[in-house]
Fold tRNA-(Ms[2]io[6]A)-hydroxylase.
Amino acid sequence: MTTLGLELPTDPRWVDIARMNLGDILIDHAFCEQKAASSCISLIVQFPEHEKLVEVLTPVVAEEWGHFQRVLKELRKRNIPLGKPRKDEYVNQLLLVLRKPGDRNEQLMEKLLLNALIEARSAERFKLLSENLTDEYLQKFYRELMISEAGHYRNFIELAEEYNPKEKVRKRWKELLETEAAIMKTLEVRADRFH
């Protein structure tokens, strides 16, 4: 077991590749933050009747957008243009395993657990960057983000349990952790991808 219950740690080669290709990692990271904010907005738009969800995720939207702005600032400091978004194979493969049940609360659980998985993997990678980069500012930056993403991970799990029986959420979470580990084994370690 690794950070936040993930079953497979990141390939150790990733952090070395990330260090040598920091510009590409920052670009992909920026898009990840943008997608995280969009995903929370989408949940609020799709499930507005769930007051607790709206209350919890509204500040998360602001936080994720703030992270996006901070990564943009890092890119500008380095004269690196944002460019166009890249295909996120990791998230696309996770989306394929989501169930599409009829019950609204089950649909919500699937979406919340997907977000929790992405936040858990992001937190793990932020931890690796905070411990392995030589740039002191970026070490601190990624440590802050690791703590923030771990908090978001907990938000998503707790919200899933708010609207579904805990046993059901835990069973599905275990299945998704196993699937995520299997997906991680198939993905190439790339210099231009955060996940």
